[in-house]
Amino acid sequence: MTDQFFDGNELPLDPGAAVPEVPARRRRGVEQVDPGLAARYAEVVEEILARTPEHMPEPTLHRVARVMELMGDPQRAYPMIHLTGTNGKTSTTRIVERILREMGLRTGRFTSPHLHDMRERISLDGEPIGIEAFLETYDEVRPLLEMVDAESMADEDPRRQVRMTYFEVVVCLAFVAFADSPVDVAVVEVGLGGVWDATSVADGTVAVVTPISLDHTRLLGSSVEQIATEKAGIVKAGSIAVVGVQEPEVMTILTDRAEEVGADLRTEGTSFGVLAREVGVGGQQVSLRGLAGDYSDLFLPLFGAHQAHNAAIAVAAVEAFVGGGEQHLTDEVLRGGLAGVTSPGRLEIVRRSPTVVVDAAHNPAGAEALAEALRESFTFTRLVGLLAVLEDKDAEAMIRTLEPVLDHVVVTRTSSPRAIRPTRLGAMVAEYFGENRVTVVEELPEALDVAAGLSDDGGVGGAVLATGSVTTAAEVRMLLGVTST
User: Fold this and answer.
1) Ordered structural domains, the chain, with CATH
2) 3-class SS of residue 83
3) Secondary structure letter of residue 273 according to DSSP
4) 263 has a pLDDT exceeding 50
5) CA distance 144 to 141
6) What's the CA gap between 382 and 410, in Å, rounded?
7) 174-227, pLDDT tens digit by residue?
8) Which of 65, 194, 321, 373 fits 231 for a cystine, CB–CB 3.0-4.6 Å?
9) Rounded Cα distance, 82 and 134, in Å
10) C-alpha span between 473 and 422 (Å, rounded)
11) Helix orientation angle between 395-402 and 364-377, rounded to the nearest 10 degrees
């Protein structure tokens, strides 16, 4: 195994260029960004991105732990809810944070990757950290980053002569920003895996594990058991482990880990779960069983059964955090929290006439959840896929899963250097769709226009689904002028 590759997911759009058009938002209005400050921010972002390596020689937490030590261990200044899994962890992180904020707690939220702006990863009270605060935090941490870089380069072992990675630096900034704020609780999503993820220098009082399946096999292992072993590493001594539905072999590994470290294991289907759900306008009505009681007829403005399960995991995680699983959440808090949830880039409608939906599904399990949600929640007369996938993903399995729900596919590529060439991806799609249901367009902006035109062939009710990677969702959002997160 290796340490973080890029940010543990995929390198998104260059966020620096978007700053002038996408100002940060405060809880009470829009942050006015001085042009000089915006320019400095763009420089700092480039400086951080320049740290991205092709690979890491060996897994280690030493660099991040050393920076934290030099900073006085800010990651221990607040309790943390730590989340991992293969799919659903970003949405679950956002739901957990939104409920906690509804309870009046000051929150820090760390997620990855970002869609448009690096600051999305570090949110305070639900809003991306301001540019000025980001720069102040970076200036505070930078000398220590350089000190640890120097220590690493002087190491006798050539394998450890590596500067801190892009992801490691952003994790350090998040932990320091949360302490400086200060927050009452941090809700932190791993970048990749668990044991060796940079976020694991902190210990969660609650460890959340969403469903685990095959993904990032080159980095985490070729079997679901190997991946589960890596992700189980976030379950720490004395924590409460809140675990979503898993394959039997995965659950065995998680159970063994909980017993090994003395964690209190709470599992979906036994300790909590979804009691009922019904598709509604703009989302769904759900009834959930939490650790401390049942909650009926809650509106969740997200589509798909997988999001209902994410909500159930999130509610259990909040109960575990605020009262060890014994304290019932108030109706007011839960209704307000869930109703205010957003999950950008996850079955998100970003345009009407024709309807354009973006979804960040980038592995087979994500594609399966997407296909199921499309069947259940939408009644498009004609659905045209806009597909761009990265090289290290199981594109064939995704194509096979999406074939029954798409009438036609426009194949293209994003700006990512890891994007599969459209001609090759188009040939893969044609194997399942047939050549008459596939159109190859080299550039994404033109491909979006072509897909929109093809969706109109179905008359009223036609739509476009842009999917295949987080970058696909991000770049389509940007093309349509949607930059809020």
Assistant:
1) 16-339 (3.40.1190.10), 348-479 (3.90.190.20)
2) strand
3) E
4) yes
5) 6
6) 13
7) 999 999 999 999 999 999 889 999 999 999 999 999 999 865 545 565 688 989
8) 194
9) 22
10) 17
11) 20
